[in-house]
Amino acid sequence: MFEFFRNIRIEPISFWIGFASASLSWWLIVQIRPSMSGLIQHIRKKLKTLRKGLKYNDIQRHLIRTLQYAQSSHVSNQLFALDEILIAPRLLAPPVPANPGQLAPAEDVVTQSIPYMPDWPELGTIYGANTLSITQALSGGSNLAIIGQPGSGKTVTLAALASMAARGELEDPDLKDRVPILIHAVDLVLTIEDYHNYEPIPVIDIIAEAVASQTSNLGQSRQSELFGSIFSAGSALLIVDGLDELFVDGNKCALDFIDQLLREYPDTRAVVATAPKFLDRLSALGFVPLSMALWSHFQQAQFAHIWGSRWSKFINADLESNNSNYISIDPLLLNGWLLNQEIVKSPLSFTLQIWAAYAGDMRGPSNTDALYAYLLRMKVDIHGTLETICHMAAKCVLLMQSTFSKDEAKQWMSEHIPEFSRNGDDDRDGDSVSAIKDFSTNKLLSALIERGLLIPRARGKFSFLHPEFFGYLAGQSLADIDIVELFKQPYSAIKCQTLHHLSTRSDILDQAQLHLTQPQNQDPLMSGQLASARWLRDIPLEAAWRKPILNNLVNILQDDAQNMAYRSRVLTALVLAKDPNLSGLFQHLAKSRQRNVRKLAALGLGTQYNAQSTSFLSNLLQDYPEIANAACLALVSIGTKPSLDAVSNALMQGNEDLQKAAAESFANHPTKGHPNLQEWAELDDLLVQRAVIYGLRRIREPWTLALLEKIHIEDSQWVVKNAAAQAFEEMQHPDPSIPHTLSPLADTPWLISFAAERDMGISPGKPANKLLLRVLSEGTSAEQLAAMMQIRRRSYANIFPIIYQVLYSDNPYLSEAAYITLWTLAASGTKLPQPMKFGFK
């Protein structure tokens, strides 16, 4: 080794040149090190800025795609963008939460006359029940479950919300910077199925893939990275449509996913759409169910005007250029005729009817007529296509699946079309026949997608345009042998729609009889009878199975042993039945000796718009206060000069309670009632002026605020000035019915006070839950109402039999609250025990 070193020869010039170069390099590095550090930081900053820029561009691209998707999420998207014809959606406001120990807000004539019925909102819509916009409802910080029957406007509500968020139009501090992520539940569930072997499932990847199947052209990894950053930053506004288009297994899958997502990203705000009886775990997950409010008569008129102007501007020109025989009809004539029809229509039904009227292919006044006209207009009924698609829909319902594949479509077509399945005597080889079948299936599916009846979904699946069409198509194909199997299925909105449309063409009385004969001591909500009652809307008048259902409802309406919350739902069902004998029935019941029957009859008369009912209702203005209130609402609803004059006389000459009811009822009539209230606000009559202020308080518009402020400043009567000031101040504050996030029970002031009065402590967990049961037994009315609100919102199910004691009590407000509490629990999946088990008969 030493010999090796002895043989090394160092060339002096090279050595010193290398040494000098190394020293110089080291010296330069030492000198520029601070600059290098700054340069590295600068490069890192540039790269970070570049990534932010890329992320910003990705977000903008996502917002644009979301807006495009949302604007096409309505049934007439082939004609107009959503914003062109949008009537701002409204949600039925829930009861104002009771706050024991504080002064309860004053009730108005509507809340005194009509119970809160999120499952049957039609009666509240007719009589101007309080409503909230979707942005108002979200301003309390709660996640929302929008509920409603198919066609009530849930999809449009979510699309409008997504559009506002995409354009940056949300003003609430917690919402204005959130990124909307609009997903259909069917796409979500189909995507989740691809990840069933993952533990835990990658929620962000699933969302990214589900969104990509609808709107995005970003790569999967890039989309996942974008959504991961959005959810991690607490900036996501998750909007899930179509939970009511799922069957039981699909709904469980979707809710499992939402549960995990909210646990991983608790700052996420979420809004979902589902059916009234399909809440499942949503309440337990913190979602507040709010029902869609249907369009009022004045909103229908507004929509008809918008549709007419858009049709005249954009559609007529095309029709006239393509068809020399086309004759345009004055929109005023069409709209006048349409608005003289039945008032209680879902937005979908009214849209389809007005479309049919303008297109000139209206087949009749019913909802099923409008559905069929749409299918013919989309040229679905070509070469047996309609029968084929009906068969496919029926197959989906019986198999309880929301979607189908191309292979399933081919198989079902083979079952339905003999020529399509023929193989035996065909001299072509198997591959040729298979190719022909593939071509025919592809052609059919492409045509149905192009015409809008089928929607392409994730994983190459297909679903039907809308639950209303799904149920209609399936109902046309199901045979009598299928009815029994369908009744045995667990609840789903699709099942209900199928039964609804099946009832229009098949005698299902034998099965319905099981609902109609079920006593209340077995089902406190009488849900089976109410389900059957919904079928009446479209069952033909001459159908033999219609009469037993109607007779059953009329008997319940007159039964004072029944809960008024239940009887109000029965009244709504009768109104929706559109029976020509209803006016006579309600006029007869208006003379009943039972005061609750007279009240229900008055409300029923107001829905028939029969001028001959004015005299019956005028007589009821001198009845008990709750009956007079209902009569005021009904007379204003009828809206003729004699009926409005009767309410005007009540305002001028009645006692203080009747004056207040009359003025508040006029708030329901924008064209005649609002101008009257403005005029009467200046009358030199202290009592009339004060009553008018109550009416103005129900009209949350800028002109009412200005008028109330003017009265407060200028009026000489202190009673009037103070009433105006109080109303003005109330209208400046957010609506008290807006749902807010709940504090823990252990931090709830009124419950702490209740426990302290009994020398009890209160701590988180089950002891606090049990304390609510004690409140139901021992608390004041306000405390019991507050306890039931907590039970509903938290989905506590262990409340029996105490809740039945409240349900069957003599206090109508407590009984109504108990009914809605039981309904919420049942919709959330709680199996209600039979009241007879606890001795309630």
Q: Regarding CATH, which class of the largest domain?
A: Alpha Beta
3D shape: globular
Helical residue percent? Answer: 55-70%
Which segments are poorly predicted (pLDDT under 50) over 5 or more consecutive residues? Answer: 419-433
Instruction: Determine the CATH topology of the largest domain.
Output: Rossmann fold
Structural class: mainly alpha
What share of the residues does DSSP label as strand, in percent?
Answer: under 5%
Indicate how many domains the architecture comprises: 5
| Spatial strand arrangement across the major sheet | 4-5-6-3-7
Q: CATH architecture of the largest domain, please?
A: 3-Layer(aba) Sandwich
Number of strand segments: 9
Describe this structure in words.
The protein is mostly helical and 841 residues long. It has 41 helices and nine strands. The strands form three sheets. The chain has a five-stranded parallel beta sheet with strand order 4-5-6-3-7, sandwiched between helices. Helix 25 packs antiparallel against helix 26 (564-577). The radius of gyration is 32 Å and the shape is globular.
Please specify the SSE layout and strand pairing.
Blueprint (H helix, E strand, L loop, with lengths): L1 H5 L5 H60 L10 H4 L5 E2 L16 H5 L8 H5 L4 E2 L1 H5 L4 E5 L6 H13 L12 E6 H9 L9 H10 L7 H13 L3 E6 L6 H17 L4 E6 L12 E5 L5 H26 L8 H8 L8 H13 L7 H11 L7 H15 L6 H11 L1 H4 L8 H21 L3 E3 L5 E3 L2 H11 L2 H9 L4 H10 L6 H8 L10 H8 L11 H12 L6 H14 L4 H8 L5 H12 L7 H7 L4 H14 L2 H13 L2 H11 L6 H8 L5 H12 L4 H13 L3 H15 L16 H9 L8 H13 L2 H14 L7 H6 L4 H16 L14
